[in-house]
């Protein structure tokens, strides 16, 4: 037997728990802003996930009763199927936590596309190194502003805090999956309260909250869209009063110039909006530990 196999056999309980922690952490890193982009190499993301998992591991083990941790034995009462189901649940939970932080960035990209369509720049496309697809110039600008605000407010540390606090609301999936599939009774020490929401309920809430993307996009693009709408009304009045003027030749450069002016003056409000959204996200994620005690 190799040294690695001997180590895994001797520390089977620790290895299983760490793999589950790594699955949840990896889901957060893959779906988190900036870290989930293609600009970050896969090896870097893996190293970051392992380092964060090592830091979070002591917090995750607090939710496990000592009787539950001692009940795992190699090739005895822990099947590969149960472990895979638990890994899938942990990965989905981590992906959900990362997606919550992605709502603002997705709304920024949508807002940039809406503004460029109204300004007549909808055909200009750029290669997005973050997602590997096509994007527009203003979408890239808005997303860069959101990234700068995200890191200036320590948003990356907020995600790590939310990951650590999630183990109070959502203990390791092996606590629930293994007894449910094997027909064993669930220990009261393993599941301290029935008020804890399930992973499925959490993911359903994340999906239902995806509508906030369009609300964010509407609020960000509102100044430019409203300004260009007023310019359309003004051009309509001018076309009625001066029929000789070619309104189509005048409207394109006028809307582009007016859109850039309104966008320039609305950039401070854009930064303020991003700060307010991240502060709101901080309040929601900081409520995790309080919610787990109810």
Folded structure, characterized:
With 294 residues, this protein is mainly α. It has one domain (3-292). It is built from 12 helices and 2 strands; from the N terminus they run H-H-H-H-H-E-E-H-H-H-H-H-H-H. The chain has helices spanning 3-10, 12-31, 42-61, 66-69, 80-119, 137-152, 155-169, 174-182, 199-208, 212-241, 247-286, 288-292, and strands at 126-127, 134-135. Strands 1-2 form a two-stranded antiparallel sheet. Helix 5 crosses helix 8 (174-182) and helix 5 (80-119) packs antiparallel against helix 11 (247-286). The radius of gyration is 25 Å and the shape is elongated. Mean pLDDT is 75; it is low at 66-76, 179-196 and 289-294.
Give a nutshell description of this structure.
It is built from 12 helices and 2 strands. Helices cover 74% and strands 1% of the residues.
Helix-strand topology string: HHHHHEEHHHHHHH
Largest sheet, in brief, is: 2 strands, antiparallel
Into which percent range does the helicity of residues fall?
Answer: over 70%
Query: What integer is the average pLDDT?
Result: 75
Structural class: mainly alpha
Measured between the Cα atoms of the first and last residue, the distance is 48 Å
Strand order, main sheet: write it out: 1-2
Query: So how many helices?
Result: 12
Spatial extent as radius of gyration:
25 Å
Strand content: under 5%
- Residue stretches low in confidence (pLDDT < 50, at least 5 long) are 66-76, 179-196, 289-294
The 3D shape can be described as elongated
Total strand segments = 2
How many domains?
1
Assembly level: single chain
């Amino acid at each position: 037997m190799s040294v690695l196999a001997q180590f895994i056999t001797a520390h089977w309980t620790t290895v299983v728990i760490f793999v589950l922690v790594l699955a949840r952490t990896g889901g957060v890193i893959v779906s988190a802003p900036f870290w989930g982009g293609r600009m970050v190499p896969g090896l870097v993301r893996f190293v970051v996930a392992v380092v964060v998992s090592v830091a979070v591991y002591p917090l995750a083990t607090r939710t496990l009763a000592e009787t539950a941790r001692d009940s795992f034995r190699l090739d005895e009462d822990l099947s590969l199927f149960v472990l895979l189901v638990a890994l899938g649940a942990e990965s989905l939970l981590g992906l959900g936590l990362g997606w919550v932080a992605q709502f603002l960035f997705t709304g920024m990209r949508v807002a940039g596309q809406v503004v460029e369509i109204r300004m007549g720049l909808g055909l200009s496309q750029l290669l997005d190194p973050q997602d590997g697809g096509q994007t527009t110039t203003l979408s890239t600008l808005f997303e860069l502003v959101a990234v700068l605000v995200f890191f200036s407010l320590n948003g990356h540390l907020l995600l790590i805090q939310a990951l650590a606090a999630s183990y109070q609301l959502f203990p390791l999936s092996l606590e629930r999956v293994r007894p449910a599939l094997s027909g064993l009774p669930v220990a009261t020490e393993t599941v301290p309260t029935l008020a804890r929401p399930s992973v499925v309920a959490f993911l359903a809430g994340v999906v239902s909250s995806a509508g906030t993307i369009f609300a964010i996009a509407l609020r960000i693009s509102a100044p430019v869209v409203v300004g260009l709408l007023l310019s359309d009304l003004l051009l309509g009045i001018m076309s009625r009063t001066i029929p000789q003027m070619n309104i189509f030749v005048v409207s394109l450069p006028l809307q582009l110039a007016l859109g850039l002016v309104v966008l320039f003056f609305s950039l401070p409000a854009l930064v303020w909006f991003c700060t307010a959204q991240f502060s709101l996200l901080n309040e929601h994620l900081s409520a995790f530990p309080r919610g787990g005690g109810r």
